[in-house]
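can u do me a favor
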């Protein structure tokens, strides 16, 4: 007998237990690198049990365990089923999981702040022990935002675990219905179909992302408009300052021209004075010469 395990695209198996006992023990460790995995129901550890044969191995049972469920129980007995669609257990096996690495455990995506749609939390089990199955329940919500639970469905098969085999178990869901936070408790032996309108969380998240992108675009647009206005104001102020400087220069030019005109008049006045003084000197010489000739 041996176990064949599959997780995040990797396949591994234990050695074959040679004993014909119906309770074989392997005590082996199979390691998987789950850094590329997320905490969604699609990321599951699938375990198949086979009996080694001469020509062909005999299939004994299978089970699939979401990572979110494995995180809730490090050491636990799990049911084996005839196939993935079966809900009839035909055996059990004990599995212990250990998580190592700097990245920490995979975590459930936190509920968006301010969101008023979708499933907030979902726990399956009894008072003494329960499993966080929020990620599994969120995947059950259809396109119309309806969470549908089929009457008679076995919870241990839906969630691939049984946290307390000897106790009556329930599924406790906290969800938003048209903006109002509500709680629904579904018993393990519930026979009636249950439908809850919880809204489409994924659509809400996408809508919020688009709103944030649009708000970012509007903020950028406003910043550009504000910057343009400031630049325009600076240009207008610089233009007014340039006009003021030009006016000052024109006034200074007028003053310079007036000074030049005064200097020109002064020069003309001085030339006429000198000319008059020269003529007077000539007349004096003529008069002096005339006096001598007499």
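np, heres the sequence
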């Amino acid at each position: 007998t041996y176990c064949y395990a599959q997780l995040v695209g990797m396949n591994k198996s234990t050695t074959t237990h040679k004993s014909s006992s119906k309770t074989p023990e392997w005590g082996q460790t199979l390691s998987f690198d789950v850094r590329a995995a997320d905490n969604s129901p699609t990321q599951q550890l699938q375990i198949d049990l086979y009996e080694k044969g001469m020509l062909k191995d005999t299939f004994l049972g299978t089970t699939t365990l979401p990572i979110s469920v494995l995180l809730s129980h490090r050491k636990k007995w799990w049911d084996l089923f005839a196939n993935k669609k079966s809900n009839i257990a035909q055996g059990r096996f004990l599995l212990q999981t250990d998580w190592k690495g700097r990245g920490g455990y995979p975590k459930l995506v936190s509920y968006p702040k301010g969101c008023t749609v979708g499933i907030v939390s979902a726990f399956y089990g009894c008072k003494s022990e329960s499993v966080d199955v929020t990620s599994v329940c969120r995947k059950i919500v259809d396109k119309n935002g309806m969470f549908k639970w089929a009457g008679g469905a076995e919870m241990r098969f839906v969630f691939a675990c049984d946290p307390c085999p000897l106790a009556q178990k329930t599924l406790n869901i906290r969800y938003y219905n048209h903006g109002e936070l509500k709680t629904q408790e579904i018993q393990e032996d519930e026979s009636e179909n249950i439908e809850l309108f919880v809204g489409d969380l994924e659509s809400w998240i996408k809508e919020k992302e688009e709103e944030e992108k649009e708000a970012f675009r509007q903020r950028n647009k406003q910043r550009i408009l504000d910057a343009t206005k400031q630049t325009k104001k600076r240009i207008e102020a610089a233009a007014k300052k340039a006009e003021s400087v030009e006016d000052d220069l024109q006034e200074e030019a007028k003053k310079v021209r007036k000074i030049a005109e005064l200097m020109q008049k002064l020069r003309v006045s001085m030339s006429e004075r000198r000319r008059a003084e020269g003529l007077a000197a000539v007349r004096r010489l003529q008069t002096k010469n005339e006096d001598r000739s007499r």
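The chain has a mean pLDDT of 82. hope that helps!!
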